Amino acid sequence: MLHMVRDDKDPWEALRERMSRWPVRTPKTKSIQQLLRLLYTAEEARLLHVFAQPYADAKTAEEIAAATKYAVDSTRRQLDDLAQRGLLMKTHSRTGLVRYHLMPLLPGLFEAYFAGEIPPENREEVKKLMKGAYDEGLGMEVGPSDYPWSRVLPIEKTISVNRQVEAAPAILPFEKVSEFIRSSWKVALIRCACRVKTPCTHPVETCLCFDNMAVYMIERGAGKEVTVEQALTLLDQFEKAGLMHTTTNAQTKPQFICNCCACSCNLRGGLVRLHNPRAFAKSNFVIQRDDAACTTCGKCVEICPFGANQRHGAHDKEPARIITFAERCVGCGLCAYHCSKKAIRLVKTRDETPEPTPVEAWQKVEAQRVH
Question: Which of the four, 97, 176, 261, 355, has the lowest number of CB atoms within 10 Å?
Fold first, then answer.
């Protein structure tokens, strides 16, 4: 089906409207309008009008050429160029059929574009416009729904079961980062788009993507294929660097594992800077501290990006200790991982179960959207 628009309509605005047909909208702001004009030519924007919506409306080069009345070869070259630049997703079926997918600004285009090689002449302007877009409304789209689209994955080696609470005693597969990685057929390591946009002291090559997205990133040269064992080793390095694992809020088929910092991350920023409680879903775990083993070294205070751990100084007959605000704990496990005295562990206290698949998760994000 042809999804073209009137010739007299602004092609970039028509493209934005299509990108916004997704649970995480692409707001009509000055920065986003300028960004689309910078990234796409008018001809490219018009070409993408054939897509009705992001991801779901995949098309072959032949289908797009037929809809636009362009030659197949020139259409394919233009589509491949957009895909190479991170402005259009390209996938391969098991039978070798190549399809193209329109991406929303977030998550999708932002990660793909910033993980690749940004043209030097555009680099600073694109960063400036993305920051403007985040501040003008895109940031609140990080958490637009009562069903968050991303979820904290606890550091697996720090978790245990507390049988005194009313929660299932088992640690389920979707609560284990290793199970998420082992269930994928392709894994790629890519640059963190957030830290490319807003540099900090943390390592940049820290995000993992899976399956079709991994193939797309590797094919573009924006990702490096890694084995399951290599990915698990990398996760250990990221945990040592103080990075928090987040993933798609679904039980199976992870689309990504981001390893987030408080300084640059859009997801963490949704809670820390924008104070949006829907920025991401907490894990089913909270920290439990053994005060007798704790030496009040303060490492857990320093490592927690949400201020869940705080010093309580000695006074009168009360000794110095570290206290925890459970409502601030997201269950990431960083403080437990970095406690040299093993005085902290993560215990399961909830039984919140994500949707079975990413498709169902995104449908629930839309169904429970609040703004």
Answer: 97
Name the residue ranges covered by the structural domains of the chain: 11-106+118-136, 150-154+163-281+353-367, 285-348
Task: Kindly give, in sequence order, each residue whose CB lies less than 8 Å from that of residue 189, ignoring residues fewer than 6 positions away.
Answer: 205, 206, 207, 208, 223, 224, 226, 231, 234
Fold of 285-348: Alpha-Beta Plaits (3.30.70)
Task: Please check whether the domain covering 11-106+118-136 is classified as CATH 3.40.50.2000.
Answer: no
Report the C-alpha gap between 74 and 90 in whole angstroms.
16
User: Over the stretch 130-146, which tens digit does the pLDDT of each residue have?
Assistant: 999 999 999 999 899 99
Q: How confident is the model at residue 161 (pLDDT cuts 50, 70, 90)?
A: low
Which amino acid belongs to residue 136?
Answer: E
Asked if the domains at 11-106+118-136 and 285-348 fall in one CATH topology, the answer is: no
- Are 368 and 354 in contact, with CB atoms under 8 Å apart? no
- The residues near 368 (Cβ < 8 Å, ≥ 6 apart) are 145, 146, 147
Asked if 205 contacts 243 with a C-beta cutoff of 8 angstroms, the reply is no
Task: Tokens 């994500």: give the residue.
Answer: 354
3-state helix, strand, coil split of the chain in percent (to 5) is 40, 15, 45
List helix spans (H) across 221-326. 228-240, 266-272, 299-303
Q: How confident is the model at residue 164 (pLDDT cuts 50, 70, 90)?
A: very low
